[in-house]
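Question: Hello, beginner here. Any chance you could explain the protein record under this note? Any guidance would be welcome.
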Amino acid sequence: MTVGTRVAVLGCGAIGSLYAAHLARVPGVEVWAVDPWAEHVGAIARTGLRVTGAADFTAPVRAITDAADLPACDLGIVATKAQHTRAAVRAAAHALGDAAVASVQNGLGNEEVVAEAVPRVIRGSIVTAGAVTEPGTVRYDAPGDSWLGPFEPSPASMAEVRWLADLLTAGGLRTHAVDDARGPQWTKVVFNAATSAIAALTGLSIGQVCTHPELRAQVDALIDEALAVCDAAGIALLRDPRDAVAEAIAEAFGHRPSMLQDVVAHRVTEVDALNGGIAREGARVGVATPRHEAMAALLHGLESSWTGVPTAAHGRG
């Protein structure tokens, strides 16, 4: 099954780089990575993609800055920021028309955008973490499982889901093929939405947010709101989000989530895919989500402070 498999990875930041490198270790798999960061792409093209930290190897990856240069692929992985999904997938659509394409991005709503351009989509959820430390090198910080399942409105087949899951597992990233990947996806989303926006608004780490009495009360209220949405939508989480909070305090107290990093760098955040995604699903199933709506509105206001213009959920992606 692995012989002659060509995989496209759209977005070669930390997650895309880790997935591209691990897949490229599998015999018979040819990995193409697309990213606009010319220095990173150039270094990978010259000397391969180096992984440090929890693993130590260099993998041959065909890195390009222009998706127009992608050949036809069997499988695809989308690892861009949520707001870049539409442009990235449209640019690569010519190469993905016969591919099963998985989103391994943060938040909700990415699969819907992917499905606008390709026919067979995989819903993905990951807990892997890392950082690009210099062009051509990604540090593997936190090994963790991944879950893949058919995206219900435009599903890839379970055979295709298992194909990609088996390749990732063979490359060193343990991945589970499941019939319904909403539970793993929402398990991550609920925790991230309850903590990341508050961290981004206050400048505090995850551990600081979750141990500050007043802020912890808000974290718990955001979790309760999201759990009500899950109950109404028939989504069963893998674990209690409060267990994830306790784990974060114990093991990742100083972690600065990507949303906080985006605010510090004056970039548009992924709040629409996290708190905004929960609010959209709440509206669909008839559950009020005023706290998640407030988080999204506050982050939009903060973004406006450096863009100079009002920002809102509509028109993103």
